[in-house]
Structures are given as structure tokens and as C-alpha cells.
Amino acid sequence: MASRLQQVSGHLAPSNGSANKIGHKSPEDVVIVSALRSAITRARKGGFKDSLPEEMLSGVFKGVIEQSKIDPALVNDITVGTVLAQGGGATNARMAALHAGFPESTAISTVNRQCSSGLQAVVQIATAIQTGLIEIGIGAGFESMTKNYGATSLAPTSEKISDECASAADCLIPMGITSENVASDYKVSRAKQDEFAASSHTKALEAQKNGWFNEEIIPVKATVEDKDGNETTVVIDKDDGIRPGTTAEKLAKLRPAFDDEGTTTAGNASQVSDGAAAVLLMKRKTAEKLGLPVIGKYITSAVVGVPPRIMGVGPAYAIPAALEKAGISVNDVDLYEINEAFASQAVFSVDKLSIPYEKVNINGGAIALGHPLGVTGARQIATLMSALKRTNKKVGVTSMCIGSGMGMAAVFERE
Fold it and tell me: Where would I find the Thiolase N-terminal domain in this sequence (predicted)?
């Protein structure tokens, strides 16, 4: 059945020859012209704590327009990933686009595939370009976990469905407990989790000190309110969740956060954060016609389902699926951006696939930078493109686990 479906999909897919193939340039390639993000700041404490999602996203949109020099009227469609925004964030996203300078003729939508929402947005736009539905589009993400994280973002669920289907009930397991399940099932030690987490901070701090994030971060103005209610306008241009001096020894002193006998702590899990990111895409022939720079291209992506109770294993299964579509192996990839939702699942995924740790999150990940849910998938692309350029590497993969039991991965090539 699977092979028959592949045959049918092959007949239906547009024939573009060598388009979106590694090592080959084609006018039909879906290319990245700009990939930028805001700084990622701590929820309720950081630089964007008093900012609304559309304010952060508008700043990033403006950065994409200014950096790429594109005429905003040429952008046909925008898709924005967000998980927590009320009403699906549709109005907020539209307001951000209009405020940034896109005309009313530029369409916009939002998408929610939980932690992969930002990547899903990019893939959705890339697919629309591949199939000829649009010429130019933006895949983006925004999230204010300060404003929207917590019980108010949770929809009511059916006890009947949970009682009748164990897997459905498992979708309601708190994310921290799914981390404990991964650590327990696959024997990921507390020591290894803390070592991985400390390394994330060390690498991120080095990247920040050396200015390696400067190319991907667009400074965004924000209004910050102090404890007395006084407002000040500041420019946010640095990730503020990175903790200097973090060591595995210090992290080992933290108490488990979800299970008294567990291994997941506030120190080896991702941070609750605010931010935005955006990726401008079009075909190579369009970029050449407009005289716009090409920094990389989208190759392919894959999304897979995994058991909800161990949702964190998603990258271990999504990455091979994406690599198979791209026709390459784990060792052919130069750099990986694997989301650090929890050290337990990130360590498991890296070890499961035998990926050398020196290829993974070379500038740190969500444990140090933060994980604004709808943003991460787009943020990783900005980070990956910058890292590939700095290290003179070519092929990169982004991936993340997804709440309720999925994993997603995408393959990119630097120009």
C-alpha cells in the first residue's frame, strides 16, 4: 500500500527535475532570502514581558523587509505559527503584518502544531511556493508565554474520549512527566541530562560573547514597565535566558520539578520565553529576477507520530524520515538544531541516531535560549543558516518533539 501511495503521489507532484536537491541548483528551488528572529527573553521577567505578540512579530517583519529590501507588496501570503495565542492568534498576526508595512493585499493565516508550529508555518509556505499557489511568502512564529502560558490556554477535553482510549488520555500527560517517562524508559541519567544542559548554556554564552547571534537577531523596540508602573522604551537585542557560570555540578543540586524521584529539573528543561521569528521564501528564479540574495534553500521535511506518553522521542524518528526524503544519511548532515524541550529527550534522540554531539546545537539551544512554543521552528532556521555560514558548512537539519506525540524535522542547504 505504501509503495502504491508513493507512486500515486509521484504522479501528482509537480515535476521540477533537480529542484530542492542537495548539491544542485535549479530555478525551481524554494530558497531562503532572509531568516531573522527577535532576541528570546524570559517570560514574566525578560525584555518582552510587557510586549504583546504582534508587537514582537511586527518588529521582526520590519527587519525582514529592511534586510532583504523586498517590496512588501510582492509577498502573497504569510503563515505564522503560534500555540497559546487566544483565538489562534489570527488577528494578532494580521495586525503585525499591516503594522510592519505589508499591504492589505498580503494574506495571512496562523497554524498550530504545538512545538513545531514555526517550522510547520515555513513548510506550509514552501509547499505553496513549490506547487505554484503563491510566488513569495513568509513562514513565521510568535509567542508571548508571559501573556498566554498557563491554564487559560488549555481547552476543555472529553472524559469520555480519555476513558475509552488510553492513547488519547496520554495526550493530557504533563510535558514534564513525558520527559520523566523518556528518561526512565531509555535510562537517560540525571548526570547526562545536567551535563547536556550545562553545555547548552556554555555554548550559548560563547556565541553571545563572540557576536555569533548578531546576524540572526533583529533588534526590536519594546516598552518595559517597572515595579512602580513607569514605562521605558528599550531596544531588545540579546537573549536574556543564558546563565553564565552554569555547570553540571550546580545543576545537580536542583530538585526534580515534576516527580520527587525524577531527573527533570528547572535547570535541564527548556525555559518559558517570549519572542518571534520569520523566514522569507520564494523560488530561486524569483529571487534572481528581483535581485534578492539567496542564503539557503529548503530541501524537504517530515512529520511523524510517536506515543504521546514519550512525545519527546519525536526527533529520533522524524529526522530519519526527513533524511530519507532528502536522499542523505545522518553523517551527511553538517549541523543539527534539535530542540531542547528537555535534556532527557534531546540526549535520547542524539544517542539513538548516533549523531556526534559536536554537530548538535553548536550555539546552544532551548535550555539556554528559551522555547517560545510557536517560535522555535522558525528560530531554529535563522540560527542554523547563520551557524552554517560561520562554520562554512552546507547541510543542516532542524527538528523538535511535539506535544501529544509527534516529531518534525526539515533539511536545508546553505547557499
Answer: 30-284
